[in-house]
Amino acid sequence: MAIKLPIYMDYHATTPVDPRVLEAMVPYFTEHFGNAASRNHPFGWEAEEAVEKARKQVAELIGANAKEIVFTSGATESDNLAIKGVAGMYREKGNHLITAVTEHKAVIDTCKHLEKEGYRVTYLPVQKDGRISLDELKAAISDKTILITIMAANNEIGVIQPIAGIGAIAKEKGILFHTDAVQMAGKVPFNVNDLKVDMASLSAHKMYGPKGVGALFVRRRNPRVLLAPIIDGGGHERGMRSGTLNVTGIVGFGKAAELCRLEMASEADRLGKLRDRLNERLHKSLDEIYINGSTEHRLPHNLNISFAYVEGESLLMGINDVAVSSGSACTSASLEPSYVLKALGAGDDLAHSSIRFGLGRWTTDEEVDYVADKLTHVVTRLREMSPLYELAKEGVDLSTMQWQTEPQH
Amino acid sequence: MAYSNKVIDHYENPRNVGSLPKDDPHVGTGLVGAPECGDVMKLQVKVNPQTGIIDEAKFKTFGCGSAIASSSLATEWLKGKTVDQALAIKNTDIVNELSLPPVKIHCSVLAEDAIKAAITDYKKKQAAEGKSAATQVQPSA
Ligand SMILES: Cc1ncc(COP(=O)(O)O)c(C=O)c1O
Ligand code: FES
User: Fold this and answer.
1) Interatomic CA distance for residues B66 and B80, integer angstroms
2) What does the alpha-carbon distance between residue A213 and residue A245 come to, in Å, rounded to a whole number?
3) Which residues, numbered 327 to 346 in chain A, qualify as contacts with chain B under a Cβ-Cβ cut-off of 8 Å?
4) Catalytic member of A164, A330, A396, A401
5) What does each C-alpha distance from A178 to A92, A146, A189, A339, A340 come to in angstroms?
6) What's the pTM value of the predicted model, to 2 decimals?
7) I want to staple A299 with a disulfide (CB 3.0 to 4.6 A). Which of A158, A203, B25, B132 is the partner?
8) ipTM value
């Protein structure tokens, strides 16, 4: 089979809309265009009915009740709503929050914002495998702690946190537990009751739905979670999120969630095998490549590898018909290498040499083989050009070398 | 990020990749940058003792495409220059030639640093060479 180029292997960044999802959405742009909040005519009723169906579909994916789903503009908003909402609502009870250093910016920056408002935040470190330690979590809890927010699976390294363990600790201590489940939900089983999660952020565009729509699961019983809204207005979504509902987006989200629920088992199995194939091929043809993060507690469709002695951006340039991303500084606006990889303690040089592969619904065997072969070729070529590779082959220990760095670096 | 055609050309067909013997008295070696910063450049020049002109230049670079292009271009420019002419190469010349965007200026700075470091190393060696030649001469006198 001929391969179509460029190849998309960046499914953690976003996913294409599944044609079945698009099909479900189309009538709601033109035919059934009503405002779901219009209570007194059939246009509104149709829209409301479609939204409620989607709410059930999303709830079912995570084992929640439909009434516990609040639709938002995406997971960034869901994370903001959960964290700021709890902070605002439970201020009297305490002012301490616990999160982790490898969280998505939507969580980290929200926490930083709250710090400026007088809240105290503990950023738990992670171990070499990318997971937090439950003992460190317990030690960080005080009687002022009102929220623990730890992501389910990481967007860069695909590492799955011990969510059930965190849920149990939170429950025992009577602290609310929010998890950013964007990368995990729809990909592997994620059940809010089994895991004792009180709030969970979801995003449609990471599960073959449209961009600009997400949800926050907000538990209604044991405990009933209350949130201070962050947007004021017409009081939609049980008062937690004002704003006319994005009906088409929500319909698509619902359909996408349903497809994920029905196809999850076979898709995860297929992608896990493809991911392993990619990994094995790379390991067979290249030395000194390192997987970042746990291989055991990991999403089946994620691979994050550092190719020692080769800088990530130059690597991306060599595989410009393959869409992947790198933790290297030079590919990001910040000129700082990935904070997630730095947090693993592997050294900044390995962060600069990293590539994230995200496999997805339309990834094929042929694509995996093409990417593995191409990478092998480019890494080999760049290593021949790398002074670090040369030094290492001469037996020089790079970590003990004195580097001549400019002050601005 | 979109790269200029010249950057792509140097990346695809880098000029003068390789190494010269470090211990050769006529070879100057510059190694600048640091792995933690995501960029390390090694640049070497070989000066012809008769003419004082750089007749060989080699590089190896760990860094982004612009860093590779900057050092590749630098080796092209170095050949045929005297040591003093080499020191006159400015990072801004590299920026202009390769049409580097502002975020990539430090890659060109690194190349200028590498040139300076290589020349400094060469001059140091020459000075030491002169001294040891002198000390070798003394006993027989
Ligand atoms: C873990 C995680 N949280 C939150 C987000 C933000 O989601 P959204 O794009 O829906 O705002 C993303 C996506 O970039 C993500 O990967
Ligand atoms: S070496 Fe860092 S951006 Fe070029």
Assistant:
1) 24
2) 10
3) 328-331, 333, 335, 337
4) A330
5) 19, 11, 17, 22, 20
6) 0.93
7) A158
8) 0.90
